[in-house]
Amino acid sequence: MENKIEKLTLFGQYFKKIGGKPSKVGALADINPKNISLLSTNGTRIIYSEEFYKIIYAAQKLAKLDDQEFTVAVNEIFPKRPKVDLLDEYKDYSPEAKFFKKHTLSQSDIEEKIGIANGKISKYFGDINKKSLAIEMICFIEGLGLDVLKTFKEIYGEVNLKEDNAGLDDKEQ
């Protein structure tokens, strides 16, 4: 049993800790259970933002955890992520200037501070199918001082939890 735990990714360790089952979470979040299993065991597998959000949110709802637990998941799955304040150098500006700066940061400043490859952000504008990495999106959201779960909900919408397919005993309140 110990060997199996050692082979789990940080994603897999968190998923197992909260009792996640790929088939149930997959049905609830409309994600292929095989993708969930691969994220749990394959350290080279890329975790995309939307997939991360849907899987973790659905797993937490199945485990009857509250929304504050989402931050715990982020911290356990990405413990070594860069933590930057994208607005730190503007802390002495007026509230209005900070607001404008928050919404007009340069792409190159964001990429440099978060550690994203130069020009990568612009690729999202040219390719509608380009997906962001969860770690990059989380660092950007946190760097702006925003709540990760709330921002994911804003970007991707509420997860349409398919409770009837997931085998939940009772409906969410």
Task: Describe this structure as you would to a colleague.
This protein has 173 residues and is mostly helical. It has two domains: 2-79 and 155-166, 434 Repressor (Amino-terminal Domain); 88-147, no CATH class. The protein has twelve helices and no strands. The protein has helices at 2-6, 10-17, 22-29, 33-41, 49-62, 69-77, 95-102, 107-114, 120-126, 134-143, 148-156, 163-166. The protein is globular and about 50 Å long. The chain starts with a helix and ends in a 7-residue tail after the last helix. Residues 1-5 and 165-173 have low confidence and may be disordered.
Keywords:
disordered C terminus; 173 residues; 0% strand; single chain; 2 domains; mainly alpha; 434 Repressor (Amino-terminal Domain)
Largest sheet: none
Report the uncertain regions. Answer: 1-5, 165-173
Using only C-alpha atoms, the radius of gyration works out to 18 Å
Q: How many individual domains? A: 2
Compressed to H and E, one letter per element, the order equals HHHHHHHHHHHH
Shape type = globular
> What portion of residues belong to β-strands?
under 5%
**What's the number of extended β-strand segments?**
0
Topology, please?
Layout: H1 2-6, H2 10-17, H3 22-29, H4 33-41, H5 49-62, H6 69-77, H7 95-102, H8 107-114, H9 120-126, H10 134-143, H11 148-156, H12 163-166
Helix pairs in contact: 2-4, 3-4, 3-5, 5-10
Question: Can you describe this structure in just a few lines?
Answer:
This protein has 173 residues and is mostly helical. It contains twelve helices and no strands.
